[in-house]
Predict the 3D structure of the following.
Amino acid sequence: MILAGGRGTRLAPFTTVLPKPLLPIGNRAILEVVVKQLAAAGFRDLTFAVGYLAHLIEAVFKDGSEYGVDISYLHEATPRGTAGPLADMRHLDEPFLMMNGDILTTLDYRELYDAHCRAGNALTVATHRRSIRSDYGILRLDGDLKTTRRVVDWEEKPEHSQVVSMGVYIIDPIVTSYVPADEPIDLPDIVLKLLADGQPVGSYGYDGLWLDIGRQDDYELAISEYEKMAADPLADGLK
């Protein structure tokens, strides 16, 4: 399942005329890159969860035969959150991949899938370590909470390393039973439900190329990185 229904407001005004997954990098739309990667990794039965400007996505990809895959479309009349579409996947009886449709990465999707199956997780999150820089000087204070306090340390615009979700998941069918059919819900909410119920949730760390083109700076970097990625052995068929 590929989530391709968002409005992409952070990339306006580009996304006023194109849905975010159709924004170009190099000579291809980002979603075309994703589909070709998935096909090369053996994922051939794809479902697009679409909403905003869905007709443009359907016009480009049609039934998927041009890309060697079979594409079906799950239309969302109203936004259902990043996990809401899972309610329509309850017919599946084996683990499946779900991901955002605006990611540029050299992640090996097949290895991620196999690692999930070996671990026996209910859900596995592909993760990436990313540095996050504060825009402000951070002060550590001591003493009582009064008009003035002692400053004991000052760190100017610190940078901290954090493990973040890549927006790529392998999901066991049991997870779909945690998703309400009639209300929006996001993936973090489902993860918290699973943890509260004692279900195993795993992390698959990846330190290679990963860019979320929903961010303006990542999109600009993706454009410059695409040619390098197309030459990568993991990116079969992208040239």
